[in-house]
Amino acid sequence: MTDLHTSIDKFQFNNVFMNASGVRCYTKDELDELAQSDAGTLVTKSATQTKRLGNPSPRYAPLELGSINSMGLPNEGLEYYLDYALDFQKAHPEKPIFLSVAGLSMEENLAMAHTIENSDFNGLVEFNLSCPNVPGKPQTGYDFDRTQEVLTNLFDFFTKPAGVKLPPYFDLAQFDQMATILNQFPLKFVNSINSLGNGLMIDPETDTALIKPKGGFGGIGGAYAKPIALANVRAFAQRLDPKIQLIGTGGVTNGRDAYDLILAGASLVQVGTLLQEEGTVAFTRLTRELRAVMQTKGYNAISDFRGQLKVLS
Ligand code: DHB
Question: Of 20, 24, 82, which is closest to residue 48 (Cα–Cα)?
Answer without folding.
Answer: 82
